[in-house]
Amino acid sequence: MKRIAITMGDPSGIGGELILKAFSSMARQSIPVVVGDLAVIKTLQKTLFSGKSFVFQNFHEGNPGDVEFVDLGLVKNPRFGVTDPAYGAASYQYIVEALKLAFLGDISAIVTCPISKASIHSAGIDFPGHTEMLAHYSGVKDYVMMMANRTMRVALVTIHIPLREVPMAISIEKILRCVSITHSSLKAYFDIKEPHIKVCGLNPHAGEQGILGSEEEAIREAIAAARSIGMHVDGPFPADTLFHRADCDAFVAMYHDQGLIPVKTVDFERTVNLTLGLPIIRTSPGHGTGFDIAGKGLASPSGLMEAYRVAEQMSAKNLLTKPHP
Questions:
Q1: What is the DSSP letter of 200?
Q2: Would you list the DSSP string of 129-169?
Q3: In sequence order, which ranges of the chain are alpha helices (DSSP H)?
Q4: What pairs with residue 6 in β-bridges?
Q5: Band of the pLDDT at 28, cuts 50, 70, 90?
Q6: Statement: 1-141+269-325 belongs to CATH 3.30.390.10
Q7: Which of 11, 28, 10, 17 is nearest to 54 (CA)?
Q8: How many Å separate Cα 102 from the centre of its chain?
Q9: Predicted pLDDT at 65
Q10: For residues 3 and 107, is the Cβ–Cβ distance under 8 A?
Q11: pLDDT value at position 321?
Q12: Which fold has domain 151-266?
């Protein structure tokens, strides 16, 4: 039976609570392997789930259907809802450990619970987020962040950069790369034989024929290049009217909020973050650490459960190498 790693995320966030709440739903066609700190889980069991019994087996010692645990022993007395360099360092180590398991072939996918970028940075770890970290250690320069739920999928040309830098970061090559990786991943992981992709413009009204901006010219050239090699790609479309009807297999947005606002508005709890183009499968809930509700028993496990389901779906394809067009 395949194993799928679940990294606990920031120890001060809602990751541990999500894992405990999703406990009974995760073991299906695979064995979940939680990578984190057992002390955090035990603290949450005592404070939020008294009277309930949760049993984690050691890694590779459980029976099929058990939830296994890799305890790194980095956090002894967790505090919830705080930014802390030690917690940033711990969440980073959970990811590194899961990557080791993936590269050794011990797991078929990684599901990541949310990390705190502030805690990560305060620990001296210079990555904007999970996506860039996973790509770096996978030795990959061409990768795509996609947010997806059961209604729509949205891939991003640029990710975690300031809005003022977006126009300069958009190029024909970068847009074409995003479209190509999205196209090949839809075919490889979701059995879509002829993917249809729609591409956003950057400016209001998609530039209004250059009156409101000239970046759409690069977008048009990238779309033309994609079409020339047989991809079904349309655009650029004004972003304010594009998302009201999910009539394609994926949308491509130019920047973070342009794409994430519509997909999260449609179905926030079941929106999943996918990193495409890696030699490993990675999914994550589409929300953050929830510091404001951490340790209070209020977090919904829907996002984690959906991320795990999608990871199972993708890993069932037995594709642990980067998909190609």
A1: E
A2: SHHHHHHHHTT-SS-EEEEE-SS-EEEESS-SS-GGGHHHH
A3: 15-26, 38-48, 85-103, 117-122, 130-137, 166-169, 172-190, 216-228, 239-242, 256-266, 302-315
A4: 34, 111
A5: low
A6: no
A7: 17
A8: 16
A9: 67
A10: yes
A11: 40
A12: Isopropylmalate Dehydrogenase (3.40.718)
Orientation angle between helical segments 302-315 and 172-190, nearest 10 degrees: 80
What pTM was estimated for this model as a whole?
A: 0.89
Q: What three-state secondary structure class fits 96?
A: helix
State the residue for tokens 């209001």. Answer: 204
Contact 131, 110 (CB under 8 A): no
Report whether 5 contacts 103 (CB < 8 A).
Answer: no
User: CA 76 to CA 297: how far, in whole Å?
Assistant: 20
| Cα 316 to Cα 277: distance, rounded to the nearest angstrom | 17
Query: Per the structure block, which two tokens stand in for 137?
Result: 């250690």
Distance set, CA 269 to CA 131, 138, 273, 283 (Å): 20, 29, 12, 14
Over 70: is that where the pLDDT of 210 sits? no
Domain with CATH 3.40.718.10 in the chain: 1-141+269-325, 151-266
* Structure confidence by residue, pLDDT tens digits, 243-293: 998 999 999 999 999 999 999 999 998 999 999 999 999 999 989 999 999
